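Researcher: Before we compare anything, I want clean individual predictions. No alignment, no superposition, just each chain on its own. First chain goes here; please echo the sequence and then give the structure tokens.
Model: Echoing the first chain and its structure:
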Amino acid sequence: MTGSSSDRPAGGSPGPASERSAALGRSGEGIATDWYEARGYEVLERNWRRREGEIDLIVRKGRAVVFCEVKTRTSDAFGTGAEAVLPAKQRRIRRLASRWLAELTPSSGRALVDLRFDVVSITAGEVDVIEDAF
């Protein structure tokens, strides 16, 4: 039986398909990081995780702090990456952004920032950044 739990490596490790997906995601996050850095943004966090979820990339330029969701696809056969960032995901990212800001010390100037939420959609190596996506 292909795909059954008995086909998984010992310890329940993810199979080759999910490993490829994770590698594709890491590659996309690297491309997104390069895109922002080339435009003068400073990377504050990559893969910032808390129990409630993860923010792929947090960057800053001037007063703007940008929370980025990165979606990487090999093709658009099942839609673009941006189309996968549904309202529930948007709410989760907003909650995580609020938590990230709350964890900053007051002296870090958290009250002096402008927030933005971007979606970076990478399809077959082509980068589409939707600034202020939600």
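Researcher: Okay. Second chain, same rules.
Model: Second chain and its structure:
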Amino acid sequence: MDYCHCDYTMPEFCNIVTRKARKAHKCFECRATINPGETYEYTSGKWDGEVDDFRTCALCAELREWARISVPCFCWGYGHLHENVRDMVEEVYRGVPGFILEWGRRIIKIQRRLYGEHWPRRYLKHKPRRSAADIAAEARP
């Protein structure tokens, strides 16, 4: 008996291959640039009568495979991978020790790739640093 039911349209046909980029592409899941020389997953198929194709970076493909291995019935759709994985983690993490840490580790790798080496510092709003003179002036009565 099959207990898995996914609420999305299955493709009429689908072809998935791993390629090496010859030019820059954007990952359909995280929107990071796939640079020339990097491997990525290329998917083409026909959904709802329309032919479409998707490029997925290696880190997002690895996140999807981790989710498939971790949960017997993991349902996801192209363009919604991160949202679908987050929902799955919220349902499962309380019963599996270390599960949320494994997910977090993978998400941080993806975000660091997307935002660069200064992640997350340059995206947080920090108060300007106070100099020693400012601190001393505040301490005076």
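Researcher: What stands out in the second chain?
Model: The domain at 13-126 is CATH 3.30.1740 (first zn-finger domain of poly(adp-ribose) polymerase-1). Additionally, DSSP finds four helices and five strands in the chain.
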